[in-house]
Here is the input.
Amino acid sequence: MNVWSIDKDAPLKLLLLELVHRYGENTLALNNKEQHYKAIELCTVNEPDISAYIYTFGQNAGRYGIDLKYPISMHNIVGENENLTLDQIIEIISIHLFS
Here is the structure.
């Protein structure tokens, strides 16, 4: 994943750089659907049915929101994790995608 070539806002690029640093370049995949400039959907390469939709729109400056998606949609967690710091968002992603 070439973070610099992705057309996203700076806080999302910062998050992606940190995740690539922690987990490696070929571990995460971005959803290819067209998405908002201030949002990304991530999954691991080996588990595309479990993903995290991370967004910065509607958040305080430098903060993130995250929706957690599961193979069974009734288990999705949407709209409950907002205005999180970079460290908080990385912790949630680590548990959701890598546990």
